[in-house]
Amino acid sequence: MAITLNRLAHVVAASGLVASMFVVAQADSQTPVPQPPAQPPAQPPAGAPQQPPGGRGQGRGAGAPQGFPAQQRPPGDPAVIAKGKTQYELVCAACHGRDLRGGDLGGPNLLRSLLVLGEVTPGEAIMPVVKNGRLDKTPPMPPLPLADDDIKAIAEYIHSVVGKSPRQGMPPPTEAAIELNVLVGDAAAGEQYFAAKCASCHSATGDLQGIATRIPDPKSLQNFWVSGGTVAGRGGRGGGRGPSTGAGQAADGRGARNPRAITATVTTPAGEKVEGVVARIDDFYVALLMEDGTIRSFTRRGAVPKVEMRDPLEPHKTLLGAYTNKDMHNVTAYLATLK
Asked: Which CATH class is domain 69-164?
């Protein structure tokens, strides 16, 4: 019995020692490890282009330093850049665009050009291309007879735009939007097209008199006449949705019937004819909005009752498949003269 008690005392002592070691280990594991002091973020060198801050929604690489040599160069001489801008707009913009993102003649986007982005000294890579051309490219670039100083000035201007880009390939913000002349059509040819295709419903001295004064923006003017007057600007929620919302299209805002509203004549089996603006129509039901604001509805079973639809915009919808870009530009140029 004494031996058993002695062994039990040894077991209890050993258990207490293990528990003490466990507590010490736990305490050590919870003791925070001293961290070195945080280093302040590195500041960019003076004159270097500022990078946009990173954050949610910025996309991959947002806020990271630009990695191309052309985006790490210090800004050039403002006088040289101004000279290069003038030369660029005269010689280069038609192919490469006024914003360097490609122009009407199919030149490449210079904001994404590896030749531009890899250039360290202004003109070192651009000058050989300008002087020798690139006849093997599509479209081919012919050699340009420009002086070396002019080419270097153009290169400085290109780099000044690239250096202000908030992200590779993105144009820098501009103080004012570039105004483009979209009236590129022949007004005389547009007048002839109007007389042949449009004059049966419209008149330059009637419904379209002063149209260019009412809609001075050429883009909105073209959208207006191509759509038959249903689009005068950007639409929004709650816009018209076709015949199923005919009731909302019945008036023109002054209480008069909308001349562009779709109408129908319903002939009942008894011979009664009912005419009104289509408020709703499907294979089983037709509802007409009457002049007094009431609704007349009819159940449809096949071809009974007889329903005759009239869509004032049908000629416009037919011509949508026949217009060419030249036709639309010419008619828009003509309508722009009706002030």
From this structure: mainly alpha
